[in-house]
Specification:
Number of helices: 1
Helix content: 10-25%
Largest sheet: 4 strands, antiparallel
Structural class: mainly beta
Oligomer: single chain
Strand order of the largest sheet: 2-5-3-4
Shape: globular
Order of helices and strands: EEEEEHE
Radius of gyration: 13 Å
């Protein structure tokens, strides 16, 4: 299956997750500093309940959020391959029959 996703992100700091952002579900979370991508993850629950991995606690970072829908894990894997984060997430998308194209 082929999925096309536009690369439209919302940039917010973790302390700014309120209002409409707090109730977003099935999103791809790109954790980045000013100049480097640290980690790519997927949140199926409300974004307000998302907690970054504990090994990122020493960094000051912001979230880039992409609405992923049902296939957010596969989108996160494709973004991880393109962005080459500092820390790899081994838990995302084990389905090999889905191809994701990121439109920039």
């Amino acid at each position: 299956m082929l999925i096309k996703v536009p690369y439209k992100t919302i940039r917010i700091f973790p302390s700014e997750v309120r209002g409409k952002y707090a109730f977003m579900k099935d999103v791809v979370v790109i954790i980045r500093t000013q100049n480097k991508v640290l980690y790519v993850d997927c949140s199926h629950d409300h974004l307000a309940n998302y907690r970054p991995p504990p090994f990122l606690s020493g960094y000051i970072f912001e979230y880039e959020i992409i609405e992923g829908g049902e296939y957010c894990e596969c989108i996160a894997k494709t973004l991880q391959e393109e962005l080459k984060p500092l820390f790899k997430n081994q838990k995302i998308c084990v389905k090999s029959d889905i191809t994701v194209v990121i439109e920039r």
